[in-house]
Amino acid sequence: QGKQKKTRKYAVMKRMISLRDERLKEKDRAKAPVKKKEDPSAIKEREVPQHPSCLFFQYNTQLGPPYHILVDTNFINFSIKAKLDLVQSMMDCLYAKCIPCITDCVMGEIEKLGQKYRVALRIAKDPRFERLPCMHKGTYADDCLVQRVTQHKCYIVATVDKELKRRIRKIPGVPIMYISRHR
């Protein structure tokens, strides 16, 4: 007969006494927050987000040819897999001149992917691509693209990433370009 093994239950934690428990001494207890009475004559301030002047209802008036398109890392990779010429397929999609823009964060992300994605790096260093400098810390490209699009509504975002598309759809007036069925 062997000894029975006791397995610890998943996410078990010791129970802690709250600071308002009556078993604690009066000096150790947390004080209840005191509510201030509101002055009815005081001016009430609310923080309402300022809507950009470029939006006419849901229509973005800053968008127009030549289109500036912010390109994401996976958009370049998917265009290689689908054997698409990036600039030419953008122009075929929008029927106008397109200027693909690539941020320092996206460039850093492609460089980090290493030797396997050297073709994507060569495409990103194309002179037709406009380089946009980044002033923030870190190289997380999704946050960088969302921040840039929130500030300036003159960009179209080219991405295949579902999570990034979901985040950008919440920002009004920003169109999304993506690759589906090799088009």
From TrEMBL:
Keyword RNA-binding appears in the UniProt entry: no
SUPFAM superfamilies (UniProt xref): PIN domain-like
BP GO annotations: ribosomal small subunit biogenesis; rRNA processing
Residues covered by region (Disordered): 24-45
Domain PIN: 67-166
Protein family according to the UniProt entry: Belongs to the UTP23/FCF1 family. FCF1 subfamily.
Subunit structure: Part of the small subunit (SSU) processome, composed of more than 70 proteins and the RNA chaperone small nucleolar RNA (snoRNA) U3.
UniProt name for this protein: rRNA-processing protein FCF1 homolog
Organism: Nicator chloris
Classification lineage: Eukaryota, Metazoa, Chordata, Craniata, Vertebrata
